[in-house]
Amino acid sequence: MVALLEIKEKLVQIYGKYEAYIIPLLRFLLGVITFTLINVNIGYMKMLSTMPVALILAALCSVLPVNAMIALAAIVVLLDLYALALEVFVVGALIFAFIYFVYYRFSPRYGYNAVLMPVCFKLGIPYAVPIGSGLLGEMYSVVSVVCGSVIYFFLKGVHENEATLNSASDAGTSATSKITITLNQLLMNKEMFLVIAIFAIATIVVYIIRRLDIDNAWMIAWIAGVLIEIIGLISGYLLLGIPGKIFGVILGGGISAFLAWGMQFMFFNLDYTRTERLQFEDDEYYYYVKAVPKAVVTSSDKQVKHIHKNDDKERITKKKFAEEMDIDEELLN
Amino acid sequence: MIHEERLKPMIKMAMFDKNDGKACKPMIQYARTDYISMQLLGSLVTGTIAFVLLCVMWGLYDTQELMKMLNGAYIFDLLKVVLVKYGIFMVVYLTVTYIVYQIRYSYRRKQVKIYYKNLKEINMIYEREEKLKSPSQQE
């Protein structure tokens, strides 16, 4: 465990030192995965759905704020939907606009879940996102989890019905039918409602337990979250008559539990205050300050001091300390 | 000479300026009621747009039903239903807005208070330095 803690501290140090490069790199990687998955699954606009374009967009995302990635991903998705059928594009645009007005007006901070959720769904580990949001976010991040799930199921529905929706190949399907088929992917999708309900409950439960003043709150929180997801989804899938997905739920839940443990290990009780680069001035100087967060455990030669209950006798009072230092007691207030 | 004592609150203030300064600006400019009213007004617009989007989606989804209601004598029934639903939607939307921005105002107002505490500290340091300087200047 001590070795793991040392690794953690080293990682924190490295992060503090190279934060300026690590954050853009992570954004770039998320961008590459996002745009590649969009291209592979709904890449109907051939001109746009190429690896060089995905790389250029990911490179743009690495230097822009997270919400720019959401905007770019939404634009790419809408262009792909336009190439598939105008009706699907209209429905997609309406859904994105609705999500924007209902949620992003209040809290764009957890907007990245809208991208992360569909990506994790495709990677088979969507269960990690509600737990991560509950552990690291605020209560209202549950809405972003819901939005991400809606986007995933909408795009999945479009992908599964692409043959019917394709404007070039099927002239027999009327515009109204296409819109009905597209919206049915959301309105008639019982699996989506099940997943959203379970994920919302899991996020809220994890958040509430994490904030409780009890021992091992983080661990209890993520274990409860994983159990809610696994039991809830297995029961739901059995009720809906789709038992084929149970194995995936157990496997994904197991991987998510491991990821949740990783999150607890890396983020619990740790102030990830970033390295700050500041510029300010007073009447004498211009200051260019780099504020680096302090590391807690740095090397293997640390000393562990055991504190026993009977240490009370040794506890120093302000009065004693002031006497010892030969200073006025008020100076210590 | 660099005054280290003065630097601590200055760094904290610079951090605040960089990270939360922009978001906290309305908490300095507006009183709570003005700020909340402004946000409620904004939500009235965005909420109405969101509701219109929902109506458009419903219209596209169920065109036949919509045409039936528009053509027949059901147009007033349709209007009544839409207005009631709009009312319910807006009450929920505005309530959420009220709660969210109340909490946000309280939280950021606290941050602003900390900022002013640091500012006060710097002022005190300056005043102390001035007092120390002035007797020597008189001499």
Characterise the protein shown here.
The complex is a heterodimer of chains A (333) and B (139). Chain A has a domain at 111-165 and 180-269. Helix content of chain A is 68%, strand content 4%. In chain A, α1 (2-42) runs parallel beside α3. Chain A has a two-stranded antiparallel ribbon. With 333 residues, chain A is mainly alpha-helical. Chain A is globular and about 90 Å long. Chain B has 139 residues and is an all-alpha fold. Chain B has a domain at 33-102. In chain B, α1 runs antiparallel to α5, α2 (21-29) crosses α5 (75-138) and α3 runs antiparallel to α5. The mean pLDDT of chain B is 85. Classes of the chains: A mainly alpha (333), B mainly alpha (139). Chains A and B meet through α4, α9, β1 and β2 of A and α1, α3 and α5 of B.
Report strand % of chain A. under 5%
**Nearest-angstrom radius of gyration of chain A?**
26 Å
From the spread of the alpha carbons, the general shape of chain A counts as globular
Order of helices and strands of chain B: HHHHH
Helix content of chain A: 55-70%
The count of β-strands of chain B is 0
The pLDDT mean of chain B sits at 85
Order of helices and strands of chain A: HHHHHHHHHHHHEEH
Nearest-integer average pLDDT of chain A: 80
Q: What are the low-pLDDT stretches of chain B, counting only 5+ consecutive residues below 50?
A: none
Determine the most extensive contact between two protein chains: A-B, 26 and 27 residues
End-to-end separation of chain B in angstroms reads: 22 Å
Any descriptors?
A: mainly alpha, B: about 140 residues, mainly alpha, 5 helices, rod-shaped
Topology:
The complex is a heterodimer of chains A (333) and B (139).
Chain A: H1 2-42, H2 51-63, H3 66-84, H4 86-104, H5 113-123, H6 128-136, H7 141-160, H8 162-165, H9 175-187, H10 190-211, H11 217-240, H12 246-267, E1 276-281, E2 286-291, H13 318-325
Antiparallel strand pairs in A: 1-2
Chain B: H1 4-19, H2 21-29, H3 32-61, H4 63-71, H5 75-138
Helix pairs in contact in B: 1-5, 2-5, 3-5
